[in-house]
TrEMBL record:
Protein name: Germin-like protein
Annotated organism of origin: Buddleja alternifolia
InterPro entries documented for this protein: Cupin_1, Germin, Germin_Mn-BS, RmlC-like_jellyroll, RmlC_Cupin_sf
Coiled coil: none
Keywords attached to this entry: Apoplast, Disulfide bond, Manganese, Metal-binding, Secreted, Signal
Binding site for Mn(2+): 103, 105, 110, 150
Length: 212
């Protein structure tokens, strides 16, 4: 009685639980609505090799904007083949002086590799708000833990290019500046919760299209 019980215990406790997919892939059916766990799967009979290839990162993004930068995503909505696989990628183009403002990805960690130019990048930990930042050059890689505020700035005098890979098919995005100043968040509440001057808040709302 003792040995079989011990054997059963070892199987239950010591055997690793597999997290592998129960099927090879789940190509996103973009005709259906997205869900918290991803898009529903396209019928296997409708899947082609085109679902696993994406050409959208070949061209540079338009950096003629307020941040002088562009992010071109290849998430599940653009690249159906990554649906359900827990991976995705994006292209970062930064003109001289360009910046990807403080932002978070609530659903995935990120790895950035610099392809061209130099990028000052960093993140803020949730423990004592310690800042970790470094100027990265061609071939350098930096990781940004899931959910933490981070940024990228073109620290050189020429255009910079990087590719960011994510541990999720749709990492999510919230840009702090836009969350505060690009909507109808009442100015008095922004001032109360950020300690910013009302005049400065109204100026930023005017720049980013928010309402006072």
């Amino acid at each position: 009685m003792y040995l079989p019980s011990l054997f059963l215990f070892s199987l239950l406790v010591l055997t690793p639980i597999s997290t592998a997919l129960v099927q090879d892939f789940c190509v996103a059916d973009l005709s259906l609505s997205n869900t918290p766990s991803g898009y529903p799967c396209k019928k296997a009979s409708h899947v082609t090799e085109k679902d696993f290839v994406y050409h959208g990162l070949a061209a540079a993004g338009n950096t003629t904007n307020i941040i002088s930068a562009a992010v071109t995503p290849a998430f599940d909505a653009q690249f159906p083949g990554v649906n359900g696989l827990g991976v995705s990628i994006a292209r970062l183009d930064l003109a001289p002086g360009g910046v990807i403002p403080l932002h978070t990805h609530p659903a995935a960690s990120e790895i950035l590799v610099v392809i061209q130019g130099s990028i000052c990048a960093g993140f803020i930990s949730s423990f004592d708000n310690v800042i970790y930042f470094k100027t990265l050059f061609k071939g350098d890689v930096m990781v940004f833990p899931q959910g933490l505020l981070h940024f990228q700035i073109n620290s050189g005098k020429t255009p910079a290019l990087g590719f960011a890979s994510f541990g999720g098919q749709n990492p999510g995005l919230q840009i702090t500046d836009f969350a505060l100043f690009a909507n109808d968040f009442p100015t008095e509440l922004v001032a109360k919760t950020t300690f910013l001057d009302v005049a400065q808040i109204k100026k930023l709302k005017g720049v980013l299209g928010g309402k006072n």
